[in-house]
Description:
By secondary structure, chain A is mostly helical. Chain A is 70% helix and 2% strand.
Amino acid sequence: MTAATTLVSTAESQRATGLGPRRATATSQIAALWTLYKLTLRQHLHGKRWMVMVALFLLPACMAIVIRSTARDPAAILLEFMLGFMLVPQALLPLIALVYASGMIQDEQEEQTITYLLVRPIPKWAIYLMKLLATCTTAVLLTLILTVLTYAAVYLHTSASFADVAVRCAKAAAVHSLAVVAYCSLFGLISMFTSRVLVVGIIYTAIVEGVFANLPFGIRLATVIYYTRLIAYRMLDFILTNSRGAKDNLAAEAWQFDVDRDPQLLQYPSTATCMIVLLVATIVCAILAAWLCSRREFHVKVPDSH
Amino acid sequence: MHPELLNQVARPAEVTPVVTFHEVSKWYGNVIGINKLTLEIRPGVTGLLGPNGAGKSTLLQMATGQLRPSQGTLHVLGQSVWNNAALNRSIGLCPEQDAFYEWMTGWEFVHTCARLSGLAGRDARAAAARTIEAVGMTKNQGRAVRGYSKGMRQRIKLAQSLVHDPEVLFLDEPLTGTDPVARRDLMDIIQRLAGEGKSVLVSSHVLHEVESLTPNIVLLNHGRLVAEGHIRQIRDLIDSHPHHIVLVSDAYRKLASRLLAWDDVEGVRVMAADNALMVETRAPDAFYSRLPALSLEDGLAIKAVYSDDDNLEAVFKYLVEK
């Protein structure tokens, strides 16, 4: 029988040619991790998440189009600020991160495919980190698209120069990407503690990032959005000049920055500090979650199981 | 469980075990999955038998490092299993759950598993192709897994467990839900694997399935080891106690009178509503061998014969409670 000889030849040929898989080389480890990374990216392309993502993507752009077509000559800078720096980082970025990060491990567990990963020669902490890396990649790509779409909808057919808009868009995309990576890492960590990560994540987004970040107290230092805003404030200006020539600092007012007493925001964390805080928080959350993952059991329910 | 049950089963000759459980227990909160299990699995094919809920899958999930024993020690190929990812190069698992990356083709699934096992590009492709051919799925490898029949899914699941050429294979109910052809093919594959020198632990809740694969069996029930050893010895153990066999015949009363004359028949209960008799015997093999001749006797045509004792649940209940 062909199958019989084939099975024998598999084992024998591998042993004879020294292709047996038991030797762990750096190349084989990297190949396995790269495959896991690609597998996770492909998983993101399947399922119903795309519908949610498309809706999220189009929301700010649609709002910009509606506002521009209904309001009389709306200020582009105001639209950019309200949509690109209020709606996107405060609501959409956490949701994108939540949708993908919450399912990194839990989806595999619920769909019972995690077994195929756990029985491979990849440590659990590495499985987590590769899946997080792939999740961050997806989230950043989506964020870039979201940001570009929003800026296009805000500035298309306006008097603003393309170069200026492109620079502002690039800066906004960079800030948003930093934020979404931090959110991914944070929600990934939360998913190691609870199976109700979606609920917890939404509550966290609403209360911590939505309320605490807007309070002019020290508690906002514990939010992702506070640092994001500070970076954005220093990289981009959001000054609206009205018809009488008066200038309105949109960001300072909305984000509770006391520019009257501290115009240069010297009392606030610097841009470098903000970036370091976000990066360190991201790394700490990732390491902690990977450690928890390495200690965790993944019980797959089967008909025979308890 | 009566401790003498284990003692009655002779241990195989001393061979270095590939899997060793020592006083292993596994708790899920207040529910016990495995209860102080001490067991050695030797090279070759070993059947892991037990009714649903016996703890077979828990045992296999622990043996493959997915679950950590709450108590005791567990070694595969002499190495501790928990958090030992490197050991997975030598282990293959065909899980019970019918779960896949449904959007993948059979080829992509097995190839991905080969890559995840650390096989490099060309080797992974060659290993995937050979393994898929070995399980008879080459013709269907380009189709999405979501469109596979149950038999195809079991075959491709088996392929992923073999693709990295493991030394020890854990097969969790590999024959469940398969049609007779797939079942026969899968059994052939498992036996060939043993012929190649692999150690295979195959779980099932169907006695005759395992009996066809291997004479070496381990009986589990309620997380406990009920018996282990050669299936003949366990059969003898079972056979030394009453078996209940149901015979369906229109002439059941006449049949009953004939049966009562047999020395190995210990009792006959009339089941008038079903035109049947329930016969109790301690020599089921001898009993079965005489049935065809009896059935040919004038007016005694036996329409159906079945034994509740073939149901493992009943056997285990008997073994544990007796």
